[in-house]
Design a protein that fits this description.
GO molecular function, one term: hydrolase activity, hydrolyzing O-glycosyl compounds
Strand content: 5-15%
CATH class of the largest domain: Mainly Alpha
Pfam families: Fic (PF02661), Fic_N (PF13784)
CATH architecture of the largest domain: Orthogonal Bundle
Low-confidence stretches: none
Strand order of the largest sheet: 3-5-4
Number of strands: 5
EC number: 2.7.7.-
Largest sheet: 3 strands, antiparallel
Protein name: Adenosine monophosphate-protein transferase SoFic
CATH superfamily of the largest domain: Fido-like domain
Shape: elongated
CATH topology of the largest domain: Fic-like fold
Helix content: 55-70%
Bound molecules: adenosine-5'-triphosphate
Mean pLDDT: 93
Keywords: ATP-binding, Glycosidase, Hydrolase, Nucleotide-binding, Nucleotidyltransferase, Transferase
Number of domains: 2
Length: 389
């Protein structure tokens, strides 16, 4: 549906060149959304898929261990949209201080995405509502790496930004000027917290994502903070108990449509096409996460059964196996720490797990050996695009 642009253009200029910046009107959209039966259906399907995904955290005892890897997978994908080349294995290697196959900065940058999500979750669980303070704190963590430090980490921008083009005058889109930011952000915070009216969580996440990108409150990292906000908000609103959803694969796969639909909202007030795309993305991501979760849990259960045949050695090997689910690439030192067993016991267990074909040693070194829970990592990589595999 086409409407007038949901906001106002203001004319500004740099070096005598005029340009127009867009200041979005507060959410929710006016006039109200056109809920066609097809769009309702999309939202229903997405909510059902989210419910199924959420259920695994309650129903399956090992599901909490999935979180570690799922969060990292989302970090890799979201950061690839931004242009980093780090793969999941690179990130896991970086985290254990092993040299990844890509520039260290890339892996470092991706690791900050994981840390930013953890920071946001901790603040949320500590009682802070979704607000600009929380987003700024996450942003400070996200940009805490060599390339990010010059881009005002943790601060609302104090200069103009533009998207597409070499200057505001030839940009595809110029977000609100600095002096309009406080009012835009205050209205955005109110919307996230159901003021002036409650909005159902999935619709809120969809509308908020566009609004956040349109406001572009930071100098850099808006895409990643905006994608993190989707998952955080679903957690804040009780749709998911844990951030198990990774929507960035969908956005990455359909990146030009993603950008086009963000534009269509601003240019023509066409929220409905965006909502349809967003709900499809959430549904597809939740369904994919569920498939991956079941495959991982089936593998873990099958491997547990095989480990149980080890007899007396089984109990220590099961503890190491458990630690490997949290950290599917790990040094033996890290596994000693995680398992709470002696180095000798862990090394013996790793020997058993290698003999069973469950783990593989990657370095062929005597010291600082790195073990991979091979099939587990393969399954996590299964739906990643080739560049990330
Ligand atoms: N035409 C557009 N209108 C509004 N937002 C847009 C448009 N095109 C892109 N965007 C948003 O801007 C984000 C990029 O902003 P920014 O560079 O600050 O974020 P990033 O996290 O560093 O990069 P990326 O999103 O590419 O990972 C895109 O992810 C998208 O969400």
């Amino acid at each position: 549906m086409h409407r007038p642009p949901p906001g106002q253009y203001v004319t500004l200029s740099t070096a005598d060149e005029p340009y127009q910046a867009f200041v979005p009107a507060p959410l929710p959209p006016v006039p109200p959304l056109a809920w066609t039966p097809a769009l309702r259906r999309r939202f229903d399907d997405a909510l059902v898929a989210l419910g199924r995904l959420d259920a695994i955290t309650a129903l399956l005892p090992n599901a909490a261990l999935l979180l570690y890897s799922f969060v990292r997978k989302e970090a890799v994908l979201s950061s690839q949209i931004e242009g980093t080349q780090s793969s999941l294995a690179d990130l896991l290697l970086f985290e254990i201080d092993e040299q990844p196959g890509v520039p260290l900065d890339d892996a470092h940058e991706v690791s900050r995405y994981v840390a930013a999500l953890e920071r946001g979750l901790a603040l949320l669980r500590g009682g802070l509502p979704l607000c600009s303070r929380l987003l700024c704190e996450m942003h400070a963590v996200l940009l805490d790496h060599p390339r990010g430090r010059g881009k005002a980490p943790g601060e609302i921008r104090s200069s103009a930004v533009w998207i597409g083009g070499s200057r505001p005058g030839n940009a595809a889109f110029v977000p609100p000027p600095v002096d309009a930011l406080p009012a835009c952000i205050a209205a955005f915070e109110r919307f996230l917290n159901d003021d002036p009216e409650a909005t159902s969580p999935l619709l809120k996440a969809a509308l908020a994502h566009v609004q956040f990108q349109t406001i572009h409150p930071f100098l850099d990292g808006n895409g990643r903070i905006g994608r993190l906000l989707i998952v955080l908000q679903l957690v804040a609103d009780g749709v998911l108990r844990e951030p198990l959803l990774y929507p960035s694969l969908f956005f990455k796969t359909h990146r030009s449509l993603y950008y086009e639909l963000l534009n269509e909202v601003r240019l023509r007030g066409d929220w409905e096409r965006w909502l349809d795309f967003f709900a499809e993305g959430v549904q597809a991501s939740a369904a994919q996460a569920l498939v991956t979760a079941h495959a991982l849990l089936a593998l873990v259960n099958a491997d547990r059964d095989r480990i149980a045949t080890l007899g007396r050695a089984a109990s220590s090997a099961l503890v190491v196996h458990q630690a490997l689910q949290r950290q599917p690439l790990a040094t033996s030192t890290a596994l000693v720490k995680a398992a709470g067993l002696t180095a000798a016991t862990v090394n013996k267990s790793l020997g058993h797990l290698s003999a069973l074909g469950i783990v593989a040693e990657l370095t062929q070194r005597q010291r600082g050996r790195v073990f991979s829970y091979r099939r587990y990592v393969e399954l996590l990589n299964a739906d990643l695009p080739p560049a990330a595999a």
